[in-house]
Structures are given as structure tokens and as C-alpha cells.
Amino acid sequence: MDIEPLHRRIASDIERRIASGEWRPGFRIPTEAELMAEYGCARMTVSRAMTDLSARGLVVRRRRAGTVVAHPPVHSSALVAIPDIQSEIEGRGLAYSHQLLLRIVRPSRADEDGMGARLIELETLHLADAMPFTLERRLISLTTAPEAEHADFTAAPPGGWLLAHMPWTEAEHRISAVGADGETATRLGLSDGTPCLRLERRTWRDGLAVTWAWQTFPGAAYDLVARFSPTQSPMKTPIKE
Amino acid sequence: MDIEPLHRRIASDIERRIASGEWRPGFRIPTEAELMAEYGCARMTVSRAMTDLSARGLVVRRRRAGTVVAHPPVHSSALVAIPDIQSEIEGRGLAYSHQLLLRIVRPSRADEDGMGARLIELETLHLADAMPFTLERRLISLTTAPEAEHADFTAAPPGGWLLAHMPWTEAEHRISAVGADGETATRLGLSDGTPCLRLERRTWRDGLAVTWAWQTFPGAAYDLVARFSPTQSPMKTPIKE
DNA sequence: GAGTGGTCTAGACCACAAT
DNA sequence: TTGTGGTCTAGACCACTCC
């Protein structure tokens, strides 16, 4: 049986009182000295609990002024998680599969700045229960990832291969709305101009471009959802090993 | 002059070695005892630095096995920040303004479940340098926020008013692609069916629905961008007070 | 000046997992 | 069994900032 550490119990207690509305934004939380007495523990233990809450943005601590429940951000931005395609499909209880439609090794063009001199261009269709789910067009820099030239992208989709062989250190995502153009519409079984969600993703490894991918989702069939409270952010990226 | 705490200096040192690629995923980081010797400090100080890195997912700590540099997530999900409209416009150096197009107080319909018995329906056009930027349709529950009935939404846009008067404790966002329908297209100055990014946002306060809003952005003019490394998440929500 | 949090120490015992 | 991290103590000094 795993007992809950005291510092986490203290933090949870306070978090619950904030979440329930018992302690409203601006409410002054008991001082460390008072919490020491309440929980009968050393100051470091209380301090750790409060530091954790502060790091998560639930409370604001200021010397002399004490610790108060934080106000929600006034200009509230929010976060949406972009799921991995395969996880997304399997998470819906559907069977994931993919088809490699195109594979070309070629020099990079002027508008593909930063992708290195030679690259692979791929087109992959991702399917959920054998129905088209996403069309992905992807470039992989052979300067940064020369091994990609000999990878079998019919076996594993390029996204998964890259994560296993070329973990990124930096990424950029862009979400926009586009109309399905001729070829994309055909591949996805849509009529021309159907609104689609376009997810553009670029990654780098130590400053060198690894890949640049565009994924097009039928607008009606796919959307990005995020639900959270200020208490628990969606930043729960599971890390292996 | 503010000196950097030692625990943060230790964490930064290690972070830098990970980011630079000097310490690759799987690399075993010196033990706490070794770091104590290296920095000439107590174990608690080293421990705090490592605990911080662990909480941020940069390293994985296991008893007996030691601390190793984390592998990037295999099924990598990522996050995109949804900015506040006004900040977004002003951040681009444009002048923000807004027009209230519609304001109705009415009973809620069956498909507006959870919004309370009476609500306000609003339609607001957000402009950047006097050009249409977003059309927003919004419901506000008068059960949860009765003060909204007397608020002047021509002065402050409803989103800002709500954040000031009814901070949420829970939120849900949904991003999808839609074609501009007749009225939306007219308001935004688009032709019918133009692909648009639709941002749906619902918020709750202690379990009670506060608001439900749909914002439609011209697909060509707007997109969501997020750039980050695993080291520094985009989770940089500024908190007031 | 005094109250509050921020950091740090030099120990201690325990939990867990690899051997 | 033993090495490693996880937690905790009982102090200490300092940095801020409100009064």
C-alpha cells in the first residue's frame, strides 16, 4: 500500500477548497506557520506543498503579503492538445491502418527553406476502420535524418518512424481551415472545396529541420477538443522510460 | 541584483546539457550524491532541482536505477495555445474594436442543455483595424450570471466582461473547420462556403454553465500557431495578482 | 520594524528496485 | 543486500514588502 506523502495531502486539501469555491480568488490562505500547526509538520513540508500549487498557478505567493488564491487569467488563453493520429483513432475504438501513396527522393525547392539539400517527400493516407481519416503530406530532411532514405514507410507510418529514430527537440504547429483541393478531396472521398482542418507540423532536432508535415482532416469528421480546469492543465504528456 | 538560486542553477545546467544534445535520451545523470559533491551543497538542494526537472518531464527518476534523460513521448501529442482575441489582434499591432450586432434575452432551447432556463444570446463582430476578424455568437446563462442582463456589451465585449465578473473554473474548447454560411459569410465579407476555423468554447463555474461561444475566423486570415520544445512548454499563462 | 515566503543545511528514515 | 531516490525534520539566514 502506497501512502500519500504529507506534502501532497496538504496541496490536495487546499486545491479542493479552491476548486469547490470555498476559497475564492483573492482569498488569503493560512500562512506557512499556521499550516505547520494544523498539520503538525515542519515548515519545509508545508513550503513544498505551497510551492507546487504556486508552480501550477493556483495560488500566488508574495513575501510579507502571504499566499492568496490566484485569479483566473484576465486575457485568458487556453490550450488544445493535438493528439497523435494513431492514438486518436485507436482511442475511438477504431482500427488504425495507413497507406503509403507516394515516396520521392528529390532535391529541396526554394520554398522549402531549411529542409536541407535532399529530402524525401511522402504522402500517406491514415485510415480509421478502413475509412479515410487524414491525408498527410510530409517532407523529411535527408541531411538531418539520412537513415530515412532506407526506412520502410509502408510498414510503419513516417510519423512513428521519426519519433523512434529522430526525436525532435523543437516543434511548431499551425492549425488552419482550408478547402479540400482536387487531389486531397479525391483521396479523402470529399467533394471539392469541403472545409477541412489543416494541421501543419514542423520539427527540429538541435536546430536542424527534421520534418515538415501537413495533415488534412475532413472538417465535419474531426475536431480538436480540450477540456480542463485551471486546476488541472491538459499538459499531461506521458513520457516513456 | 537578484541572484539565481542554486537549485535553479543546477537544474538549468542539466537542462542545457540535455537541450544541446550532450546528454541524449537514456543517458544516466549523475546521482544526487555526485551532484552534491560537484556543487558543494546539501542533498535537498540537488533533490529540488531534479524534482523540478522530473515534474517538467525532462528526466525520469527511479529508485535504485537513478535518473536518466527522458525519451520524447512516442505517441507525441502537442499543445496549441488559443489566444484571447483582443490580445491576438493587438499583438499583431492592429487596433481592436468590436460591434454588438444582436442581443436577445430568451428562454433556453432544448439543445442548449445545461445553460439554465433563461439566457442572453449575443452576436459580436470583432474587428482588427476596422476589418472583420471574427464573428462571435455567444450564450450566457442568466441562472449562473444574472448580472449579465444589465451589462453593457457595447462598451466591453462579452468575453472580457465575463472574465472580469464570472471567472470560470472549467473550460472546454473545440476546434473545427466549417464553411461560412449565409449570414456569417456576409458579416465577415466572405463568399458563401469559404472555409473557416471555428472555435467553440464553453465554460463553467463550479459546475454551472457560464457561457457557450462560437467564434468563426476566415480560414485564410487566421490560424493558430504554437512553437515550443519539450523543454519549455507553451503553458505560460500569466496570472494576475 | 516585523511578518511572510525563499532558500539552504545536515542530518534521518524509508521505499523501491536491481543485483 | 545495497544503491538510489522520496520524504521529512528542526533549525537557520536572507529578501522582500507592507505598515
Number of strands of chain A: 11
CATH topology of the largest domain in chain A: Chorismate lyase
Give the overall average pLDDT of chain A.
84
Please write the string of helix (H) and strand (E) elements of chain A.
Answer: HEHHEEEHEEEHEHEEE
Q: Provide the CATH top-level class of the largest domain in chain A.
A: Alpha Beta
Ends apart, CA distance between termini of chain A: 23 Å
Into which percentage range does the β-strand content of chain A fall? 35-45%
Low-confidence stretches of chain A: 229-241
- What oligomeric state do the depicted chains represent? homodimer
Number of helices of chain A: 6
The fourth-level CATH homologous superfamily of the largest domain in chain A is Chorismate lyase-like
| CATH hierarchy: architecture of the largest domain in chain A | 3-Layer(aba) Sandwich
Neighbour order of strands in the largest sheet of chain A: 5-6-7-10-9-8
Q: Quick one: overall form of chain A?
A: elongated
Task: Compute the number of structural domains of chain A.
Answer: 2
Radius of gyration of chain A: 24 Å
Biggest interface pair, residues each?
A: A-B, 73 and 73 residues
